[in-house]
Amino acid sequence: MDDKLSIQHSEHYSDLVAQLNDPVWLKQNAEIEGDGWVEAGNGLQPYVACLKKLSDQDMRKMKEQVRVLSMLLPVLRDWMVSWELGASFEAAYIEAQTLLFHHIQQAAAAQEGWVKELASAYEQGTRAEYPPAMLRKRLAEILTQENWQALAKVATQDMETRILQHAQIQTELPTAV
Amino acid sequence: MQLPIQVSTGVGALVPGLICTMSQEHLFQIETIWQGILLALQEPDKAWNWEYKLRLATNEERFEAYVVEVDTLAQGGILIETQWHRSQLDGPLSSRPPLVYVEYLATAPWNRKPLENPPFYKGIGGTLMAFVRTRSAELGFDGRVGLHSLPEADGFYRRQGMPNYGPDPDKDGLVYFEYGTL
Fold first, then answer.
1. Measured between beta carbons, which residues in chain A are less than 8 angstroms from residue B153?
2. ipTM > 0.90 (yes/no)
3. What's the whole-number mean pLDDT along residues B116-127?
4. What value, to the nearest 5°, has the Cα angle with vertex B174 and ends B171 and B175?
5. Total domain count for chain B?
6. How near does any CA of chain B get to the CA of A86, in Å?
């Protein structure tokens, strides 16, 4: 998709960048949004219907989970980028997010202290007190030994699939005479 | 594609974000994290019949999908179709100009006041619409964009200044809105 997207080189692009970084426009844009319902497309009707059924308890859980994810995901991503997994990064990162989200959901349900602590830091604007090194350590504690094994397996399998795909393509090509 | 932007938090502060082409990572977040929020309702299948079309965006030339990302988390997404739709303005079909059609536009569950007050982020929908209008101009459609709004969002598109062409019987009576030329 990126190949056909020439937007970076257009005159419209610079206007758009200016607009999307203009504090006055951003304030107006936030006001126009009203209560936040912006959904378009017939297929989203069940999504909106489901959102309207969320209970106060569901919303409290959602708030906590999103705050914790907002603190941990950027650190997880940067950390995994530093592992230099190459093309297998995406598969491994998606697996890591799945495992982390699972732990956050479970911990939030069990009202574990670390979830409350991180959510509270986000809410009170004291995220800076949790530098990446500290959050990486926290991630290392949250993910279990089985989780790390699962991550390693996903990355290995993804790489294996890529290699075998190339071999398969070559064997299917007609031989030049 | 990654376009650096500013995003307004629910309390009016500005934080850095990105508009990005929707990747597998984003799709995962929509399918797992957004959906995970709704799992308590035991109705995930009913709610998530739109992921098929999002996947099309990665395979079919005529679809494009973008997200607004903050803290590496997808905060809203848009799926557009760029080849088959034409303006709904009067006139024979052959003379109607092409446009970008918004198949889906959604913000994350936590970015709306009735669920989270203040919401985590405000203006995600407007940001995506501004981007898509520019994309329409890029494609030679002069900024024309059409969509069918869900009833809850009609007010948002009116406040955006999008002309309203009334309920569309072919789309369950959803109101059709269309931006004209820039």
1. 37-40
2. yes
3. 92
4. 125
5. 1
6. 15
